[in-house]
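agent> Task received from the user: take the single chain below, predict its 3D structure, and emit structure tokens. No templates, no multimer pairing.
agent> Plan: (1) validate residues, (2) run structure prediction, (3) serialize to tokens, (4) report one or two observations.
agent> Step 1 OK, no nonstandard residues flagged.
tool_call: predict_structure(input=
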Amino acid sequence: MIRADGREVSYSEKGLALFHGEEFTGYSVTHDSDSIDVQSFISGFEFGMYYGVHPETGTLTHFTPLQFGGMTLGAEVEWDQHGRVRSETIAGFDGSNRVLRKWGEDGRLRSDRREQGIFYDRAFEDLGLGFVPWMQTPRAQLGDRAKNYSFDLTAVVPESELRWDPRDEKSRLRGEAYWGYLLSRTDQGRTRMRQVLDGRDEGPVWEWAPSGKLVLQGVLHHPYGRVGPWHEWDETGRLLSETVYDALGNRIIDRHFDETGNLAHEQHHEPTHLWTDPDTGQERPAPWLWF
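)
tool_result: status=success, residues=291
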């Protein structure tokens, strides 16, 4: 996954991102005075993550997980320059915004609005499932559908279908480095779906409770594991916690929210691993995500 200057990325008549005339797979990086914006592309399509890093503090200004075609999948979050969460907008799998929250500088919840989805809420109510704020639990695609794995990020296969290659530390499907979603089951009985690019964990991860409610969203990056923001909700959609890891996998912030949505606890941790500036050799804390 290369990183390209956003000014060098153009768009075709079909709306696909191009870099040096080819459909772009990688990250575009655009600098301005307020934010360094990073956008992920696969074969010219917006896919994976779109986020901004504050140029002075290294904290995130915004984070959006994207599915194929640039639609939001899960929670879009914004922070101020000090890293305090300001807003959360959660999109449903039908493309509609389902939960919209805002917090003040004191950590108190200012608003919490719920909206029905465009197509599915009535069906869920008829089945007795109540309000379902996000998506249905994903299902693995087997047989011929799973064979279309090269740059086919709509593919979802069970973890048991892949083989780990220790020589280059990549997950392979039928001998080829896998591109797509990987489905597994956690010890708590949750369904986990994570993004794999070129055989390695790279990008968003989600978990669903056995009831089908989405309860966790985070980011994985090889070889560091958890990086960036991780959010956890209960099955009513209430935000329980926010845990922030830096780009080296250091846990740096723990936040917990009470039953009314207000910030109840916040703890900061010093990183155990520092980033070495390649230009100066100076060691300093890493940003929340690479840019």
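agent> Step 4: summary for the user.
Residues 2-103+136-284 form one domain.
agent> Done.
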